[in-house]
């Protein structure tokens, strides 16, 4: 199983073994990382906002227009912002490193 490295909202780093075939958001939510994911992954709430380590950004699937529009409207937006519900977890993402964005 691939590993995800996470820095939580308290700034604490930790790792966990991720499930593939589901989104990064589902992995974070199911491992109690305080990702609310109010919309359930339909790209309409932005409560699954994360900052992806820049070294990983280009290895991720490209951002669709609806994700880009939603996340760039967030007050906590940064150039490495992604909505974790729009990233499917795969073996290729072993070592993915991200930070949970602050609540907007
Ligand atoms: S869970 Fe709502 S936008 Fe990702």
Automatic annotation (TrEMBL):
Which top-level group of life is the source organism from? Answer: Bacteria
| Residues covered by the 2Fe-2S ferredoxin-type domain | 2-104
Q: Name one Pfam family in it.
A: Fer2
Q: Which cofactor does it need?
A: [2Fe-2S] cluster
GO terms, biological process: P450-containing electron transport chain
Keywords (alphabetical) are:
2Fe-2S, Iron, Iron-sulfur, Metal-binding
Q: Give a yes or no for keyword Transport in this entry.
A: no
Task: Name the Gene Ontology molecular function terms of this record.
Answer: 2 iron, 2 sulfur cluster binding; electron transfer activity; metal ion binding
Which InterPro entries is this protein grouped with? Answer: 2Fe-2S_ferredoxin-like_sf (IPR036010), 2Fe-2S_ferredoxin-type (IPR001041), Adrenodoxin-like (IPR001055), Adrenodoxin_Fe-S_BS (IPR018298), Beta-grasp_dom_sf (IPR012675)
What the record says about family reads: Belongs to the adrenodoxin/putidaredoxin family.
Output the PANTHER family linked to this UniProt entry: FERREDOXIN-2, MITOCHONDRIAL, FERREDOXIN/ADRENODOXIN
Name by which UniProt lists this protein: Ferredoxin
Q: Which organism is it from?
A: Minwuia thermotolerans
């Amino acid at each position: 199983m691939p590993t995800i490295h996470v820095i939580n909202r308290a700034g604490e780093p930790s790792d966990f073994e991720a499930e593939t075939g589901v989104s990064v958001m589902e992995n974070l939510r199911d491992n109690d990382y305080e990702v609310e994911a109010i919309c359930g992954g339909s790209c309409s709430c932005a409560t699954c906002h994360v900052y992806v380590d820049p070294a990983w950004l280009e290895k991720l699937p490209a951002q669709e227009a609806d994700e880009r529009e939603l996340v760039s409207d967030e007050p906590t937006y940064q150039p490495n912002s992604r909505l974790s519900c729009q990233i499917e977890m795969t073996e290729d993402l072993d070592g993915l490193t991200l930070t949970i964005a602050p609540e907007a």
